[in-house]
């Protein structure tokens, strides 16, 4: 009993959707999830130019870790075949951490070979948040930090505070 | 040596210039100047001079000079004669050299012929002095005779000298270095032309405001329409002509002198003049001069000439000039001038004069002819476009008949289109005539420049232009059908080649794509246009081949429109009332031609108003007949919910494709379809072979068969039949009176012819079901009546204030049927449908009111009594109910659907309906959606829409309770009741029934009420959305950028929220303002928003 007027044109078959389109769709959904059920201490959002394949995220340092009270900015770059390939995640805020090097690159298995399409932005952020409290000292990018983490927590904390610097947003 | 050379130099140079450029030629140069230096100085002087020469490129001169210099350096003095003979081809140089020749004798080594040489040189000097050209050319001497030589000196000295020169070989055999005096003169003319005349011409071109009174120009000015540009160009042309005339006068004067001299010599001496043929010389001279003039015509002059020609030719041919002052449309449209049109006559004379003048001065060469051809070509295009664009109907017969007398043999008798006839006439009597007149004035040979075959060419050119115009207009022609038949006649007569047919189809397809097949056009509009296209193309080309070529894109697009089939079917099934209304509209449209142009919309509106008068009253059976949408516009709200069919029609608001029903009912059209399948008619005198561009499987159709074309255009027959079945099902279920199935049956017949009996078996069964149901229904009720009589009938009064009769349709497991109930208060009818043959009818579960359920049970029993082994399955949602609501101050009687009736019945107070009537103090019944959901087990959305229906009927009122978000509905027992006396929250109930609800039929449409409701801030969904948006904003400002302007935020939201972001920037601004007020946000510099840091 359709209304005659509701004759919105049927768009042509969407056969040749460009692959990035799927990623964008997925990211839109992820964003919606992030917004409707936000996890504490983490948040993420597409960058200001409206490019859905490039996000900015924020992690608050967990309590009872040397990073308590600090916030860290990250950047997510999603490939066009996301979620079948992991996003490239970088710390934009300088951070002193065993698994993060000085240019912000992160050593985390789920961002490399352990990635599956079941992960999403939120899980990545939560993993990173927990990584702050529990670094994987077996495969450090920052050897000194890995050493200090166990030997001298006080010095470690000092180094963390020295290195940390709130970055201004664009 | 250098010093001496230098001084001689200057002296020499001065004399050279004097001898060349001044009329008062100084006496022969003192001889004794060393030749090499002389020649050198001469060339240098030239070099110097060429820098100031205004018109001749100095480069070319320079080259010649250096060449000459080199030669001079190379040759020894005795070879001077060689130099001369080498260079005559270089105009300027050789001229000067020739002049300087008389100074040579001294240097010539003494030999036997020295005396002859001297004599020759003296003679040469004398003659050249005589015929040398003046330095100025003025147009003030239009007579053409050189002023300084008013009296022709015919003294013997001149003749003798000339004789010597001309017959040098015999008279002065000793003179070795002789030259042709005629070529000398020609060279000098060339030099003079480039040095003196061309600058003058340039001056002419630069003449801006014409000051000097030109009588002829004044004459043409009397027409009063000459624009300033035209005048200016005219002045340029005329002054150029005058200058040239003056110059040519000078040149021919010198030439005449020579010729006379030669003739004189011949006559006097009668000696054997060796091969000086005067005629040959004269024609060569004229040719040279004309070539000179023709090649010198500058672009500026050409431009001016073009303007002048365009104006004059336009006047002659009746084409208004672009800048014409007369703005009114009548005069704007080109039309052949009448015989006594003074303007045209004047222009014609002026043009003739101009062409002759041009011819005389040599400007009528190829360039002019090309220019004229271009102008004429432009004129033809302008005339065709101007005179016939948008002129589709026959021009008035008066002018036509006059034209018919003049136009002739050249056009075949088959052409009847008035446009074409008048165009042919114009080409023959104006265009070709003018061409002839002009070309015969400029052509040299006696052969007629415009032959009859040329005329045919012109006419075919004009025709092709007309066809191009019509092809470009074709889409508009289609829209204007049937008033555009005239244009189609033109087109039919002009698209004679397959190339042009191809052009037509490609162009039209393109027009379709840009003008029709886009989302802005409703399917109805597209289909209506399609019908016009079919008509138009059939009129254009009976073979339908052209139509076949333009259809594919249209078909392809229509397949994307889901509702196309439905529109076609409903159009076919349009009721007689609609058809009648449509007919009226057609008649109306004929009277008001301008409405046609406006498109279909006025038609629809008129149709509505036409239908208003015939309101159909509900039948006594309690089921309203399915009145057409148009008859019930006033009760639009009723329609919204009363039945699927009418709902669809009225909600769309655009009417139906009644054209189809019209065609279907047109007896002439039907006859055509009957003939269709017959074999080739051998007696058909109008038979023509199939068009060349027909396809391989081409089969000639006999009629335009709009319906058939349309149906076949809509894709596979399966789709169509399915859609048809479902629509017929709807209609059968909604129609109460089986006598009105005519239309359906007729369409069914049509479709059967097309698709075959088997394909439409379902529909047959469906119609039969309905007919059977009626009989069965009667039988069951008769059985009841008997029972009741036996039971000594104590009539049961139906409870309360509603429900008089009901009419339901059900579906049985194997069978379907209808039932009617007749209790005094409640009549129950049913229709029994055969499940397998009806298109999918879903069961929708909800609880019917108890009395109805009882009726159903009784009906079921009666049915099973009649037909054992069969069961009924009730399809409750498909019924219609006549409801009568007795409210405190009024009685509302409405036809509605079963769910609607069920919902309103639920407001019937549980204890007893009488209570409400009896007890005025009892508060009106109220229900919420949730309560109804629990009691009725009906789909919530359906409940909501039913409630809105009753709100629109002024039976219910919606309240919003402060506590719960779900609205409460309350019965409006009395229209005079204050809106509310017990619920404070109602004060901000802006959307309910404001003030007194007594406005007539004034309830708002259910739709809008719903929308307004959703905007209330309390709406939970809205609240949810706002929370979500706030999350987005927070996420955005936390991560993407710490501060952002409003517009960017809105844009981001629009991009990022998959379901869309419906807020405007203003709404977002309000929202953000709220957040600022709550201390969540702040505005920083540049109007950017950011989160407050905590």
TrEMBL record, chain A:
**Could you say which EC number(s) this protein's record lists?**
2.3.2.23
Among the GO molecular function terms of this UniProt record, one is:
ubiquitin conjugating enzyme activity
**Protein origin, superkingdom:** Eukaryota
Domain named UBC core: which ranges? 22-169
Q: InterPro entries recorded for this chain?
A: Ub_conjugating_enzyme (IPR050113), UBC (IPR000608), UBQ-conjugating_AS (IPR023313), UBQ-conjugating_enzyme/RWD (IPR016135)
Record carries keyword Transferase = yes
**Active-site residues, record numbering mapped to chain:** 107 (glycyl thioester intermediate)
Keyword set, alphabetical order: ATP-binding, Nucleotide-binding, Transferase, Ubl conjugation pathway
User: Which family, according to UniProt?
Assistant: Belongs to the ubiquitin-conjugating enzyme family.
Stated name of the protein: Ubiquitin-conjugating enzyme E2 2
Question: What is the protein's species of origin?
Answer: Sordaria brevicollis
From TrEMBL, chain B:
- List the Gene3D superfamilies hit by this protein, alphabetically: Cullin Repeats (1.20.1310.10), Cullin, Chain C, Domain 2 (3.30.230.130), Winged helix-like DNA-binding domain superfamily/Winged helix DNA-binding domain (1.10.10.10)
Composition skew (Polar residues), residue ranges: 616-631, 642-652
Classification via InterPro entries:
ANAPC2, ANAPC2_C, Cullin-like_AB, Cullin_homology, Cullin_homology_sf, TPR_ANAPC2, WH-like_DNA-bd_sf, WH_DNA-bd_sf
Cullin family profile domain boundaries? 709-951
Region of interest: Disordered: 204-226, 586-652, 977-1021
A single MF term (Gene Ontology): ubiquitin protein ligase binding
The highest taxon in the source lineage is Eukaryota
Q: Which UniProt keywords apply?
A: Cell cycle, Cell division, Mitosis, Ubl conjugation pathway
Query: Which SMART domains does the entry link to?
Result: APC2, CULLIN
Q: Where is the composition biased (Basic and acidic residues)?
A: 209-219, 586-608, 1008-1021
The biological process GO terms on file are: cell division; metaphase/anaphase transition of mitotic cell cycle; protein K11-linked ubiquitination; ubiquitin-dependent protein catabolic process
Gene Ontology terms, cellular component aspect? anaphase-promoting complex
Under PANTHER family, the record lists: ANAPHASE-PROMOTING COMPLEX SUBUNIT 2
UniProt record similarity statement: Belongs to the cullin family.
Protein name in the entry: Anaphase-promoting complex subunit 2
What organism, scientifically named, is this protein from?
Sordaria brevicollis
């Amino acid at each position: 009993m359709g209304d005659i007027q509701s004759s919105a044109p049927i768009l042509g078959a969407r056969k040749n959707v460009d692959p990035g389109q799927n990623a964008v769709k997925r990211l839109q959904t992820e964003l919606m999830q992030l917004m409707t059920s936000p996890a504490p201490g983490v948040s993420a959002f597409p960058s200001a130019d409206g490019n859905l394949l490039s996000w900015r995220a924020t992690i608050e340092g967990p309590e009872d870790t040397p990073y308590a009270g600090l916030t860290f900015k990250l950047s997510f770059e999603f490939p066009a075949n996301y979620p079948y390939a992991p996003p490239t995640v970088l710390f934009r805020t300088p951070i002193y951490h065993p698994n993060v090097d000085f240019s912000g690159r992160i050593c985390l298995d789920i961002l490399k070979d352990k990635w599956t399409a079941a992960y999403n932005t939120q899980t990545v952020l939560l993993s990173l948040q927990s990584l702050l409290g529990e670094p994987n000292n077996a495969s450090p990018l920052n050897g000194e930090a890995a050493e200090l983490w166990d030997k001298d927590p006080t010095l470690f904390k000092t180094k963390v505070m020295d290195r940390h610097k709130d970055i201004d947003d664009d | 040596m250098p010093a001496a050379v230098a001084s001689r130099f200057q002296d020499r140079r001065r004399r050279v210039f004097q001898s060349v450029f001044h009329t008062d030629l100084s006496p022969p140069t003192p001889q004794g100047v060393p030749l090499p230096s002389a020649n050198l100085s001469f060339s240098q002087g030239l070099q110097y001079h060429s820098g100031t020469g205004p018109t001749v490129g100095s480069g070319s001169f320079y080259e010649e000079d250096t060449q000459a210099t080199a030669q001079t350096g190379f040759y020894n003095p005795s070879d001077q004669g060689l130099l001369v003979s080498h260079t005559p081809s270089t105009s300027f140089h050789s001229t000067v050299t020739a002049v300087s020749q008389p100074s040579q004798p001294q240097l010539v080594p003494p030999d036997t012929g020295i005396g002859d040489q001297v004599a020759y040189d003296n003679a040469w000097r004398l003659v050249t002095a005589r015929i040398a050209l003046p330095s100025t050319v003025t147009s003030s001497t239009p007579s053409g005779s050189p002023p300084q030589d008013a009296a022709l000196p015919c003294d013997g000295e001149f003749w003798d000298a000339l004789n010597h020169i001309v017959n040098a070989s015999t008279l002065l055999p000793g003179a070795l270095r002789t030259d042709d005096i005629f070529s000398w003169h020609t060279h000098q003319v060339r030099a003079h032309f480039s040095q003196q005349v061309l600058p003058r011409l340039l001056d002419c071109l630069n003449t801006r405001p014409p000051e000097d009174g030109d009588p002829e120009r004044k004459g043409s000015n009397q027409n009063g329409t000459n624009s300033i540009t035209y005048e200016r160009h005219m002045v340029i042309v005329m002054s150029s002509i005058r200058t040239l005339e003056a110059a040519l006068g000078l040149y021919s004067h010198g030439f005449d002198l020579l010729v006379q001299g030669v003739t004189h010599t011949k006559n006097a001496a009668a000696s054997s003049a060796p091969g000086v043929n005067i005629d040959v010389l004269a024609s060569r001279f004229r040719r040279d001069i004309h070539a000179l003039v023709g090649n010198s015509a500058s672009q500026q002059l050409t431009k001016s000439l073009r303007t002048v020609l365009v104006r004059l030719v336009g006047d002659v041919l009746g084409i208004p000039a672009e800048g014409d002052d007369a703005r009114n449309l009548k005069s704007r449209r080109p039309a052949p001038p009448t015989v006594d049109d003074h303007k045209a006559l004047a222009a014609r004379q002026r043009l003739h004069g101009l062409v002759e003048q041009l011819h005389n001065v040599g400007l009528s060469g190829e360039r002019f002819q090309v220019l004229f051809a271009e102008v004429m070509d432009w004129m033809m295009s302008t005339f065709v476009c101007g005179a016939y664009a948008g002129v589709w109907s026959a021009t008035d017969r008066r002018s036509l008949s006059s034209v018919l007398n003049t136009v002739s043999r050249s056009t075949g008798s088959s052409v009847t289109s008035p446009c074409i006839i008048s165009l042919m006439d114009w080409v023959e009597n104006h265009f070709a005539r003018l061409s002839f007149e002009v070309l015969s004035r400029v052509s040299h040979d006696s052969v007629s420049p415009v032959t009859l075959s040329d005329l045919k060419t012109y006419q075919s050119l004009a025709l092709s232009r007309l066809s191009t115009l019509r092809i470009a207009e074709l889409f508009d022609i289609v829209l204007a059908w049937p008033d555009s038949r005239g244009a189609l006649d033109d087109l039919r007569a002009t698209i004679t080649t397959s190339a042009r047919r191809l052009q037509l189809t490609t162009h039209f397809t393109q027009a379709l794509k840009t003008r029709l097949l886009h989302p802005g056009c409703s399917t109805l509009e597209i289909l209506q246009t399609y019908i016009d296209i079919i008509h138009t193309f059939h009129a254009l080309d009976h073979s339908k081949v052209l139509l076949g070529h333009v259809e594919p894109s249209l078909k392809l697009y229509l397949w994307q429109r889901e509702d196309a089939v439905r529109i076609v079917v409903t159009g076919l099934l349009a009721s007689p009332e609609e058809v009648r209304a449509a007919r009226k509209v057609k008649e109306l449209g004929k009277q008001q031609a301008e409405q046609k142009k406006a498109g279909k919309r006025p038609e629809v509106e008129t149709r509505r108003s036409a239908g208003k008068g015939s309101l159909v009253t509900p039948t006594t059976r309690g089921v309203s007949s399915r009145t057409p949408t148009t008859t019930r516009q006033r009760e639009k709200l009723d329609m919204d919910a009363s039945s699927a069919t009418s709902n669809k029609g009225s909600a769309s608001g655009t009417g139906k494709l009644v054209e189809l029903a019209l065609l279907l009912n047109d007896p002439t059209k039907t006859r055509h379809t009957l003939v269709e399948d017959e074999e080739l008619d051998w007696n058909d005198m109008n038979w023509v072979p199939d068009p060349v561009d027909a396809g391989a499987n081409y089969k000639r159709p006999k009629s335009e068969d709009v319906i058939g074309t349309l149906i076949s255009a809509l894709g596979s027959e399966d789709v169509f039949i399915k859609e048809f079945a479902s629509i017929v099902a709807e209609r059968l279920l909604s129609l109460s009176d089986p006598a009105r199935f005519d239309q359906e049956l007729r369409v069914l017949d049509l479709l059967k012819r097309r698709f075959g009996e088997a394909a439409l078996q379902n529909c047959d069964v469906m119609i039969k079901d309905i007919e059977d149901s009626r009989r069965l229904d009667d039988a069951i009720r008769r059985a009841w009546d008997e029972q009741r009589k036996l039971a000594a009938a104590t009539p049961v009064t139906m409870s309360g204030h509603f429900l008089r009769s009901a009419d339901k349709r059900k579906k049985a497991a194997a069978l379907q049927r209808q039932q009617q109930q007749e209790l005094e208060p409640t009549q129950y009818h049913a229709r029994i449908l055969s499940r397998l043959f009806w298109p999918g009818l879903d069961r929708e579960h909800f609880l019917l009111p108890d009395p109805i359920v009882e009726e159903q049970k009784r009906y079921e029993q009666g049915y099973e009594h009649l037909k054992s082994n069969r069961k009924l399955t009730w399809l409750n949602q498909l019924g219609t109910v006549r409801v009568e609501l007795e409210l405190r101050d009024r009685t509302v009687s409405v036809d509605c659907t079963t769910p609607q009736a069920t919902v309103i019945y639920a407001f019937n107070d549980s204890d007893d309906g009488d209570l409400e009537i009896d007890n005025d103090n009892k508060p009106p019944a109220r229900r919420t959606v949730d309560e109804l959901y629990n009691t009725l087990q009906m789909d919530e959305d359906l409940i909501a829409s039913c409630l809105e229906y009753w709100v629109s009927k002024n039976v219910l009122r919606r309240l919003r309770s402060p506590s719960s978000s779900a609205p409460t509905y309350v019965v409006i027992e009395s229209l005079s009741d204050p809106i509310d006396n017990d619920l404070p929250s109602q004060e901000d109930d802006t959307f309910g029934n404001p003030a007194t609800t007594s406005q007539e039929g004034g309830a708002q449409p259910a739709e809008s009420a719903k929308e307004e409701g959703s905007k209330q801030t309390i709406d939970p969904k809205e609240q949810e959305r706002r929370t979500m948006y706030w999350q987005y904003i927070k996420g955005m400002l936390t991560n993407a950028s710490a501060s952002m302007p409003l517009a960017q935020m809105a844009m981001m939201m629009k991009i990022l929220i998959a379901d869309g972001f419906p807020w405007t920037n203003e709404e977002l601004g309000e929202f953000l303002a709220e957040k600022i007020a709550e201390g969540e946000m702040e505005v920083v510099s540049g109007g950017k928003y950011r989160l407050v840091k905590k």
